[in-house]
Amino acid sequence: MDYHLSIAGERSGPHTQLNLIEGIREGRLKGDELVWHVGMQDWQPLRSVREFDDYWPVSEETRLLAEAARTRARAELDRPRPWIRFWARVLDYTWFMLALGFVLGPQLPSDPKVIMASPVLRNIPWSSLMLLLYVPVEAWLLSRYGATPGRFLLRTQIRRLDGGLPSFRQALRRSLQVFLKGLALMLLFPFPQVFTALWSRSVLVQRGISPWDETNETRVEHGEPEPWRYLVVTGIVVGIAVTFLLVVAQLAAAMSSLPN
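^ that's the sequence the OP posted. Answer follows.
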């Protein structure tokens, strides 16, 4: 399409669209020039012509507004959300233990009485072992996808400081430190999980970053979960609670039937 320009009453043309784009990029055309092409009813300011919207340099005001918007968005992504992280981890431990139970279940006695009567099986620190086995699995998922199933459900991701995915080695160090600095302490001193979560929340809110993220130069990004995600999490948590009570009742019954 050919364009005609009118600058200070002097008309020129025809010009190609590429000619006008080059003039905009080089600063020769400021936008208040009048332009006309076949099909237009009247002359119009060049800046008002839609075909050239993407080629005008960004004004300083627009640049500052965009920078402020990016800063706000980044702050929202990085805002500590301890309970979201807590429930994401609970969901991850749940699916991993279910998967591990599916794999190892056939190898263990089906009768809880046999397990409780066996000194070897009874004294194995099952919780610590399962959480430790989860470390390399979590590291692989984070290095490949930046999230685990629980984190994906609650729209949480682990990223490097530059925004890329962590390497497997980097994610492995992080997951191992989570186990050693957080979970292992909880298992050695078995306070209720809610108090452990409250302590973790206090540290995270005060510092804005967890020790393992600070050490490994990673950060946690949070999106805003939709309501249906919260409903799914609520259903899973209720299911976990009911299952836990049933297991405890079964183990209590098995222990009460053992000889003193």
